[in-house]
Amino acid sequence: MKTKIRSILLACMISLPVLGQTNGTLSVSVKTGTTGGTYAPKNIEAIWVEDSTGKFVKTLLAYANQRKGYLYTWIASTTAAGSVYNTVDATTGATQSTHGTRTCAWNGTNWNRVAVPDGTYRLRMELTDKHAQGNLATITFVKGKNLQTLNPANVPSFSSISVTWTPSVSGIDDPEVTEPEVLVYPNPGTGLFRVSGNDIREIRVSDLTGKLITTTANPGFDLTGFPPGIYLVKISTGTGTAFRKVILK
């Protein structure tokens, strides 16, 4: 009987579908603003990803030092995961003295650097300029094989929001497709970018809203004069297509 039960369980496990794990990049750009707190315009802020159940996945940005204890929602999320204030692979810095456009990115892995399954996730943003709870924003997005660009309405402390999930051509669950090996440099850069790779035929650069900025067949492009932030680069070669992101300083 025990042998029969083990056989049934094994058969069920084999028949379970394997969740897709598409490689890609979530690019985030947001302009911060005051909550009207005592210490404005100085502020602390955090941006992180949770799964659809609210479980902490990874911190993308944390600008906070001595006063990070007032980012209550971020603290609760990281604490529940067993790693309070976790900033593995995140963009980090001290308390900000002014407001401006913040950019960060997520590579689809958790704070243990393990790729997470495709599905619905939540981008959380928190900012305070007082010794108390500040403002929060939550944006739901889908990690998967499809490109998704979101431009949510402005909310207190967060405006000009742009969130883009850009899947790679090849996914973890699609090993027969190989993405071309290309490199875009310098990255971050101040305007002029070069692209290296074999048989490059076309380069298309877009902003985070999906608006096409430039198209060229040359192994480089110039973003001099464009607003600082994250730009998406589509590189077509003789063997396939690659997607990259660049940061313009």
Secondary structure tally: strands: 16
- Helix and strand content put the structural class at mainly beta
How many structural units, i.e. domains?
2
SSE arrangement, N to C: HEEEHEEEEEEEEEEEEE
N- and C-termini, Cα separation: 67 Å
Oligomer: single chain
Strand order of the largest sheet: 4-3-2-6-7
Round the Cα radius of gyration to an integer and report it. Answer: 21 Å
Query: What overall geometry do the principal axes of the alpha carbons give?
Result: globular
Largest beta-sheet characterization: 5 strands, mixed
Overall pLDDT metric: 87
Q: Which strand-content bin applies to the residues? A: 35-45%
Task: Identify low-pLDDT runs.
Answer: 2-18, 170-177
Helical amount: under 10%
Number of helices: 2
Structure description:
The protein is mainly β. The protein has helices at about 1-15, 70-80; strands at about 25-30, 45-50, 55-65, 90-95, 100-105, 120-130, 135-145, 150, 160-165, 185, 190-195, 200-205, 210-215, 220, 230-235, 240-249. The protein folds into 2 domains: about 25-165; about 185-249, Macroglobulin (MG2) domain (Immunoglobulin-like). It is built from 2 helices and 16 strands. The longest helix is centred in the N-terminal third of the chain and has 14 residues, at about 1-15.
Question: What's this, in brief?
Answer:
The protein is mostly beta strands. It contains 2 helices and 16 strands.
Summary keywords:
249 residues, mainly beta, Immunoglobulin-like, five-stranded mixed β-sheet, four-stranded antiparallel β-sheet, 2 helices, disordered N terminus
Produce the secondary structure layout.
Elements (H helix, E strand, L loop, with lengths): L1 H14 L8 E9 L11 E8 L4 E8 L8 H9 L10 E3 L7 E6 L12 E10 L6 E9 L4 E3 L7 E10 L15 E3 L6 E5 L3 E7 L5 E5 L3 E3 L6 E9 L2 E9 L1
Parallel strand pairs: 3-4
Antiparallel strand pairs: 1-5, 1-9, 2-3, 2-6, 6-7, 8-9, 10-11, 11-14, 12-13, 12-15, 15-16
